[in-house]
Write a structure and sequence with these properties.
four-stranded antiparallel β-sheet; mainly beta; binds FE2/S2 (inorganic) cluster
């Protein structure tokens, strides 16, 4: 399954290897660690998306949530977040969750994680 190898270099220090595309089943969410941060990776067809794996409303992992209509539903109080952007789509959440760029390079999925300054 996924590996947690850090492929950072001097030129693209923010990209972190999180596995192969086939490690992420279509329509599902998968937890990974990238740059020491918990990330939820979502696959929707050919698209991959990454959100911080922590609800902004409480201590719940979005990777334990339910996916429907392009959103992930928090398992604790059913707050909704847009999988692509992290924006809120339904209460009780009022703060968006961080989203991160994802790319596939040389057959590997990479997530760009930069800590807030
Ligand atoms: S902890 Fe996620 S909606 Fe409350």
């Amino acid at each position: 399954m996924q590996t947690m190898t850090d492929t950072a270099s001097d030129t693209d220090a923010a990209w972190h290897d999180v596995g192969e595309p086939d490690d992420f089943p279509d329509g599902a969410v998968w937890p990974v660690i990238a740059g020491g941060m918990a990330i939820a990776v979502f696959r929707q067809g050919d698209s991959l998306h990454a959100l911080h794996d922590l609800c902004t409303h409480g201590n719940a992992r979005l990777s334990d949530g339910y996916i429907e209509n392009g959103c992930v539903e928090c398992p604790l109080h059913q707050g909704l977040f847009d999988i692509c952007t992290g924006e809120t789509r339904g209460g009780p959440v009022t703060e968006a969750v961080r989203s991160f760029p994802v790319q596939v390079r040389a057959g590997r999925v990479e997530v760009s994680v930069q800590r807030k300054a």
